[in-house]
Every structure is written in C-alpha cells, then in structure tokens.
C-alpha cells in the first residue's frame, strides 16, 4: 500500500512520559498505515501502549517524535484549535464506558457532534437513519439511565458515525459488556466499516475481536510486535 492510499499514516512515532526522574517509553518507533475500510484490531497487555496509540491517532495526545497524517492532514503539527476541528470532522470515538451525557436523550446524544461542528439542519436527518441502523430508533426519547449497557454502546456507535468520519477509534468497546452484547457491538462496528467504508480501529483485550478484522496488530512495551491479516477477512 502506498502512502497516498492511507487514511492514517504513522511514521516513527514515539511517546514518552516522565515518572519522577525516570523517563518511561510509552510508544517507540511506531510505523503504521491503514486504508479506507480497514477493520483493525490492536491487542496487547495492560500498559503496553494500546490506549496511548489510540489517543495519538485521534489527536487527543501528541507524539514526542515522528509524524501522523490523517486523510491528508498532518495532525502531529496542528495546533489545539485545528485538532479540535479535525476531530469533529474526521474522527469518531467509542469508549468502554459509553461517555453519553446523562441529561440528554438518545437522539440528543447522537445529535451533539453535529451541533458542535455547526452542521446544517438537514444533517439531522441522518440521526434517524443511524438510530434505525443500530436498532434503537424506538428509544430515541430515552435517557441513558433507562438503557442497558449494550444499548448505550449502540447509541455511542451511532454518535461516532453521525458526521461520517474517516476513522472510528474504539477503546475497549466490549470491555464493559457481557459476551452476547459484546458480539453485537463488534457486529455493528464491522457492518459500519463495510457499509460506510469507514476505517475502524478497535483496541481490545478480547481475542474474539481479532476475528472481525482484516488486519491485526500486537503491541507490547510500546512496540508493534506483529502486523498480520486475519485469515478469511482480508
């Protein structure tokens, strides 16, 4: 794959933290290129660098060395305002604990990214389509406290997709769910990847998740150890 085909490209990306007088390497020399429509899983032990990598890809953190390009934007050189605007246009986030606003209804939670980005009113039409897509249109007026964990995560996926991002970053999206709902969430993310040609990156401890991707990475001690297609999904 050439660099011009990549939705996101990381070149020699490293991230360090200071723990007292000790310099801790969170990531070291990461090279990665992902194409539009890739479903990528990243696994590894706790503290191995998975979430740090996801935060860098999402512009929530900055590398100490190296370069990150997302859909033609050199995000490792953007200022805070530019990164905020880019996240609102190009990136969807799905978190382990859903991160829904409890005082907003399902509809309002999904609508929020459009309001923040100043999207035109006609864009709101996509909310009903997405809620139907995740099987929750009939719950549009419910509040998060009235929903199960699996339902809240489906709302979070609809919210992540509502502005048609180039990439969706999911940090342990099944980590707070039972196995049945975990499978449902992975099914929806895989379908969204195929239907919307959105690149999906899933950081997970769940070995089952790797079966959903067409690419799989292992990360340990801040280094990518393997990069391989998943048999039957490539």
UniProtKB/TrEMBL annotation:
UniProt KW keywords: ATP-binding, Lipoprotein, Nucleotide-binding, Transport
PROSITE patterns, sorted: ABC_TRANSPORTER_1, ABC_TRANSPORTER_2
Pfam families documented for this protein: ABC_tran
Membrane-crossing residue ranges in chain numbering: none
GO molecular function list: ATP binding
SMART domains reported for this sequence: AAA
InterPro entries in the record: AAA+_ATPase, ABC_transporter-like_ATP-bd, ABC_transporter-like_CS, MacB-like_ATP-bd, P-loop_NTPase
Residue ranges occupied by any ABC transporter domain in the UniProt entry: 8-234
Family of this protein: Belongs to the ABC transporter superfamily.
Name of the featured protein: ABC transporter, ATP-binding component, Lipoprotein-releasing system protein LolD
């Amino acid at each position: 794959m050439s660099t011009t085909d990549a939705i996101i490209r990381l070149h020699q990306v490293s991230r360090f933290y200071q723990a007292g007088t000790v310099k801790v390497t969170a990531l070291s020399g990461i090279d990665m290129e992902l194409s539009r429509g890739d479903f990528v899983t990243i696994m590894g032990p706790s503290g191995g660098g998975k979430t740090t990598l996801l935060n860098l890809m999402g512009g929530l953190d900055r590398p100490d060395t190296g370069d990150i390009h997302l859909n033609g934007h050199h995000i490792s050189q953007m200022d805070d305002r530019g990164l905020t605007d880019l996240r609102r246009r190009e990136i969807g986030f799905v978190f382990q604990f859903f991160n829904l606003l409890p005082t907003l209804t399902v509809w309002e939670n999904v609508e929020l990214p459009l309001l923040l980005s100043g999207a035109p009113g006609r864009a709101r039409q996509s909310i009903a389509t997405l809620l139907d897509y995740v099987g929750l249109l009939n719950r549009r007026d419910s509040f998060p406290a009235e929903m199960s964990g699996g339902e809240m995560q489906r709302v979070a996926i609809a919210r992540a997709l509502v502005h048609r991002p180039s990439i969706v970053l999911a940090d342990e999206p099944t980590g707070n769910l039972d196995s049945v709902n975990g499978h449902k969430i992975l099914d929806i993310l895989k379908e969204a990847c195929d239907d919307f040609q959105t690149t999906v990156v899933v950081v997970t401890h769940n070995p089952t998740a790797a079966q959903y991707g067409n690419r799989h990475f292992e990360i340990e001690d801040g280094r990518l150890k393997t990069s391989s297609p998943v048999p039957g999904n490539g």
